[in-house]
Fold:
Amino acid sequence: MKRIVVLTAYNVERTLVRTLEELPQDCWDELLLVDDGSQDGTRRIAESLHVPCVSHPKNLGYGAAQKTGFRLALERGADVVILLHADHQYDARCIPGMLNLLSQGHADAVFGSRRLGGRCLQGGMPWWKFIGNVVLTGWQNLCIGAKLTDPHSGLRVYSRRYLEQVPFEQYNDGFLFDAQIILDGVARGLRIHEIPIPTRYFAEASQMGWHTGLRYAAGIMTLSSRQLIRRIDACQPIRVAEGA
Structure:
């Protein structure tokens, strides 16, 4: 399998080197960094390390960065696309285990789950984010009929089959992209598995603020509720009008 790592990056000059140093050399064939309009030295550092880099002229959003990365990875013949944040928040050493699960045919996508590790708060996750994660995940699972523990994780491995079956180019350019790609995948019968990963929150890692978090939560609730309504409608019996 051809494995391409898509590194999403925005102002990560202080963490990019650490992220790459932690990435096991035997778990990828190509790297692709998507610089989403960084204002610091992200691109310069990537070029000095000979990491192929595609830059957006301005900050378009996390979803837009994934669209660019996934599109280019598929064009370059990727059988597996590994999504990794370049801010060092996610432990790249977990990727080989995720790839093994995918290669065994047990899943179409594998997500790293911070909650499966059971030490979210010890890893620095703010309490309000932990509570929000639990509530949003529970509602999302109920609405779409899934059993995920951390659908908000940014460490993911997708098979080519998964990315070719969902219309990811049509998704939101912001953080809601992650929810949409799950909703469509589950609706199409694609299998998502999870493995435990450590939780890491620190000053240099990118984090949602309160306002962005609230907008994100509202968007998740809305998307999930619409999916629940569609599922309910699909289960309703067809009523034949009188006189038909």
